[in-house]
Amino acid sequence: MTVRDLAMRYGFLALLAAMIAYFAVSASGFVSPQSAVFIFQSVAITGVLALGVTATLVVGGFDLSIGSVATTAMMAAAYVMVVLEQNALVAVIVCLAIGVIVGLINGFLIVYMRVPDLLATLGMMFLLVGLQRIPTEGRSIATGMTMPDGSVASGTFSPAFLALGRHRFDFFIPNLVPVSVVVLLILAVLIWFFLEYTRFGRMMYAVGSNERAAQLAGAPVKAYKIWAYVISGIFASIGGILLAARLGRGDIASGNNLLLDSVAAALIGFAVLGAAKPNAFGTAIGALFVGILLQGLTMMNAPYYTQDFVKGVVLVVALVFTFALSRSGQK
Amino acid sequence: MVEGAVFRAAGLKKSFGPIQVLGGVGLELHAGEVTVLMGANGAGKSTLVKIVSGVYSLDQGEITLDGKPFQPATPAEAIRAGVVTVHQNIADGVVAALDVATNLTLDRLNGKGAPLLFNPRRVRREARKVADAMGLSIDLDAQIADLSLADRQMVAIARAMAHEPKVLILDEPTSSLSSAEANRLFKLIDHLRGRGVAILYISHRMSDIRRLADRIISLRDGVIAGVFGEKPLDYEGAVNAMLGQKIGLSAVAVRHADGAIFSSEHLKIAEGSTPFSLTLGDGEIVAITGLVGVGKTALAETLFGLRKPLAGNMNLNGRPYAPKSTSEAIDAGVFLVAKDRAENGIVHDFNIYENMSLPFLQRLSRMGILRRGAERTTARQQISDLGIVCRTERDEMGTLSGGNQQKVMVARWMSQNARLFILDEPFQGVDIAARRDIAAKLRASSAGRTTLIFVTELDEALETADRILVMSEHSIVGEHRNAEVDMDRLLAEIAGQPVRGAA
Amino acid sequence: MKIDRRTLGKMAMGLVGATCLMQLPAMAQDKPAPFDNPGNVKIALVRYLSTGDFFQAYLSGVESQAKALGVDLRVLDSRQDAALQADMVDQAIALGVNGIIIQHGLTESMKEAAQRAVDAGIKVVAFDVNVENDKIPQIEQSDRDLARLALEQAIKDNGESWKAGYVYVAGIAPLDRRNETWVDFKKKYPGIEEKAMFGTLDNPIANSVANQARSVITANPDIKVMFAPYDEFAKGVKIAVDEAGLSSDIKIYSADISTSDIAAMRESGSAWAATAATNPAVVGQVSVRALAQLLAGEDPGKSVIVPPTLITQKDLNDNDIKNMEDLSAKLPQFAHADVAMPAWMPNPNAK
Q1: Is C218 in Cβ contact with A34 (below 8 Å)?
Q2: Is A140 in Cβ contact with C53 (below 8 Å)?
């Protein structure tokens, strides 16, 4: 293995380790179980979204609508519980249904209507940003809010639903690990296993690398592509559920920052272990990388714009790792 | 014609790295004549065209135009000197986003002396002049994107002619045109010939060649294999020279089939083509040969469920066979090694064993979960069977030579038993050793299935097959047992001529 | 009589106003021109910002006051398009309106458009945008007062010496004005120590701020007071404080209020101690009233300041306030501001 190969494979993990060491020394309180859990918690939502977008990247697509799917799901959860006064289960089901439907529509537009993926999902993004405002005429949803018709919404966020954002599991230390972190870890393992160890995941990679070859090998290419967008939609809606549970209300938001952060995590993931392709493990590490960076910088009182700057630097470095150093970049 | 050549090239040589593509080509073009250049894939036609049109530089040799040295460094220089090329890809010749008038005058928008402002009226005036000179009747306001391929081609040629070239090179201009559209193109070419333009016309299509050629030059392996200028033109001889068949290169122990595995009746695979029947027997290898564009790939795709036949029926194992998708074809035991492996075969992000297991993942997994051990064992078996040169089954595809990549593509389908095993141009871009290996493996394993290969190169058919079928104009026009092949008849059939004596 | 009606209205808030059908014709008689015939008065609201609870509430205030006056209101919304907003002023001029309210926007793009409207004889007021025109009164909510009220409460609750976390993003005009007050307070009370300053406008803002606040709390466990002079910031800080389990150790002081803020403040053991707010609906009403005064030939003054109200957790709990309507009903100083309120002006809150 040459030095270059080593740099390719372990360079990014080394960078991660160096960063942790640096913050451990310079930011007091950085090294603690609570701090570690918090880093996971702060990346849980973008991480879930990033895992979903990884599925679309694998089939050679892209999903710009994930951020707005998440915020739409958040609004839907709030609407179902606060306005329609339903329970947590109904809210979760409605959110997941939104994810599935949006994924199917995205897939249909891209596969059957032949709209390029970026444009189709961009359109969907705008559509959802508008749609989530329609039921309340642009108001955020909270218990006791006044509806457009003058009535007062009297439903509340059910405690079971809020627990998704607030309950903590005991893990050596009591009340340590929040539900969102558990959800992130479970989904990460699931999608990682799915992509790496099942034939469906393998075929999705084949579709993304050479669609024609996959078709000639008997793969139902269209179905795989649509499935990828459905996965992306479902993951985004799960992200929205976690968001709603954390905020405890339905907030009008475009979700663009969620989109950008999760796409950054997925792209940083390309560089992890020299994969040079979308992969679930890399995405999870990418999300964590961004989380650690932001936690450390905030603890050191760095203003928010330096954080965006540093995020951008990390992304650019990761992309250089992927495209300049890897063999596939030299084709 | 009498006053000598307008364009003369001698001793042209060109190499890319260690591979010599042109090994001393000489040719002449005369004013008012259509010279047809024929050559199989890889014979060096494109390289020759690119040198003459200023895309590539020359390693050795010299070209003169009107007696003066001609060595264009850029395409623009070639055009200024009077040599204009209309490339095969029509998209290069026209700008789809603009209308006809702008396209016809596009070259005047650039360069010195071009007016700063775009004046639509002046553009239309000039475009009208260009169109009239060419006898072109196309709505000048039409958008290129709305035109048929033929009309786009006309516009591309008219645009080229606006330069008043001495030499016009047309690179396979009819490859995507219907015959009616081609006829319009031929009229245009007649018109240009009448105006004294020297035309180099590159094509495989015998119907084009018979209609247009004043002279034929056959190119083979980077050298001129024959020049045919005496009327009546010897088309057969030209094809012969182009394919360069060497009879008895390696005699094949021809076998007879034991009963049919696949049969079809009245199969029609293209509009206006003659329906044909096809029977493929157990244990035999059948090669279908013919020039490029005669429907070989269309037939392969029909058999593999990628397209539906226009008419006729197919039977496999005595049962009707009408696959709606590739996966149905695969389930029925029909496998296809598609041509052009980089485009249609290789999954570039996958290593060798992942590429091999691609179609049969279902059989190599349990409850959807891959059994990597089984995948790799199967791959190792195939690697040793086919003699694939690699370090391990986990090597990336990019590290393999073309021949070994092709072996992986064949191996992909050999791990399971096929009933009908189709290989479309399996020897394209494959060195001679790998080609022999693949052919030997196909012959050794042919029992229990029927094997169908589609090849343009006659040698490849003669080396591999028990039976050779000839395809022309989307139909099967001849059949030969690969024992005592009547080469004259075979070549005549490939050239698409009524067979003298035998008919 | 009118004053009685207004006072009565405040008291009767929440009850069904069965007499409102009778109300308008009865009042029309005592109003000055042109409001003696309000159906002929057309006013336009030209908006730059419109999405979000604040702007929804502002619009409802404009609408309710316009309805109370009986004038014809046109709403033109440029959706953060500065050039379009200027064009919309011209459009309003072409519509033949009598008065225009310019709501937010950029000085550069609106200055000339506003002047054109004034030149056309149209009365103009501006809310939260300086169009640099002497003829145009400015409606303002006092950001400095907002910050001052919240901070005074913090001093009252915690004494004059504490360690603080401060949420701030520079470059946003109202936040910059609130920041001036914070800077003054730190000078005035040297015992206040700013341990960390953070903030972001990445949306959902509360979620992003929560992530930052968690880091800040971890790094500075001695912080006792969080000053988050924007309610989205405060919500984020509250989530972080709850997640860190420090609700009883940290107090949050903020500005602005909404229904969901009320719920968050009233949660048991909530760290969110107090907020100072101007009712956006009242600001909307004041905007229309100032314009009406201009149309009636009165002078509302060069600058019309809508005073803020301090709302503490205790106020909310004592009065069992659940939403903005309750807040208006039970904290009269929040429901109505006695600004631009000549005797003839109908009070939209009086039902």
Answers
A1: yes
A2: yes
For residue B36, list its beta bridge partners.
B201, B216
Query: Does C75 reside within a domain?
Result: yes
Q: What are phi and psi of C140, to 5 degrees?
A: -135, 145
Please indicate, yes or no, whether residues C23 and C83 belong to a single structural domain of this protein. yes
| CATH code: domain of residue C258 | 3.40.50.2300
Q: What is the pTM of this model?
A: 0.77
The alpha-carbon gap from A109 to the nearest alpha carbon of chain B, in Å, equals 22
C232 is in which domain, residue-wise? 143-277
Phi-psi region at B285: left, alpha or beta (left = phi > 0; alpha = psi -120 to 50) = beta
In A, minimum Cα distance to B361 occurs at: A199
Q: Are residues C267 and C207 in the same domain?
A: yes
Alpha-carbon dihedral C34, C37, C40, C42, rounded to 10 degrees: 60
Residues C108 and C152 in one domain: no
Same domain, yes or no, for C133 and C156?
no
Domains in chain A, CATH or no CATH each? 3-325 (1.10.3470)
State whether the Cα torsion A31-A34-A36-A41 is positive or negative.
negative
Query: Of the candidates A41, A146, A254, which has its C-beta nearest C203's C-beta?
Result: A254
- Length of chain A, in residues: 331
At how many degrees (to 10) do helices A199-209 and A221-247 cross? Answer: 110
- Tell me if there are at least 3 CB pairs under 8 Å linking chains A and C: yes
Facing A298 at nearest CB: one of C216, C221, C322: C216
ipTM above 0.90, yes or no: no
Report A:163-222 residues touching B (Cβ under 8 A). Answer: 197-200, 202-203, 205-206, 208-210, 212-220
In chain C, which residues have their Cβ closer than 8 Å to the Cβ of A75? none
Mean per-residue pLDDT, C55-79: 90
Which CA distances in Å does A254 have to A67, A114, A257, B47?
7, 26, 8, 54
Q: Is residue C252 very low, low, confident or very high in pLDDT (cuts 50, 70, 90)? A: very high
Tell me how close the Cα of A311 comes to any Cα of chain B, in angstroms: 28
Rounded to whole angstroms, the Cα distance separating C225 from C154 reads: 8
Strand partners of residue B260:
B281
Same domain, C99 and C219: no
Do C32 and C68 fall into the same domain?
yes
A contact test, residue of B349, B369, B375, B423 with most A CBs within 10 A: B349
C321 within a domain of the structure (yes/no): no
Chain C residues with beta carbon closer than 8 angstroms to that of A78: none
| Residue among B421, B266, B275, B274 nearest B338 (CA) | B421
Q: Does C202 touch chain A (CB under 8 A)?
A: yes
pLDDT by residue (tens digit) across C164-178?
999 998 887 788 889
For residue A73, the distance in angstroms to the closest alpha carbon of chain C comes to 13
- Same domain for C225 and C173: yes
Domains of chain B, each with CATH number or no CATH: 1-82+165-244 (3.40.50.300), 94-163 (no CATH), 260-494 (3.40.50.300)
The confidence score (pLDDT) of residue C25 equals: 42
Specify the pLDDT at position B172. Answer: 80
Q: Count of domains in chain C? A: 2
Single residue among C235, C257, C277 that ends a domain in this structure? C277
Mean pLDDT of all residues in C322-330: 84
B333 has a chain A CB within 8 A of its CB: no
Higher-confidence residue of A247 and B336: namely B336
Q: Is the dihedral of CA B14, B16, B17, B20 positive or negative?
A: negative
Name the minimum distance, in Å, from the CA of B377 to any CA of chain A.
17
Judge whether A327 is closer than 8 Å to chain B, CB to CB.
yes
pLDDT mean values, one per 10 residues, chain B (503 residues)? 74 79 87 87 79 86 88 84 78 74 74 64 81 76 78 79 83 72 82 88 80 88 84 79 59 75 91 90 92 87 92 92 93 92 89 93 89 92 90 87 89 92 88 82 90 87 90 90 83 69 36
- Angle formed by the axes of helices A117-131 and A66-78, to 10°? 20
Residue C167 maps to a domain? yes
Domain co-membership, C184 together with C290:
no
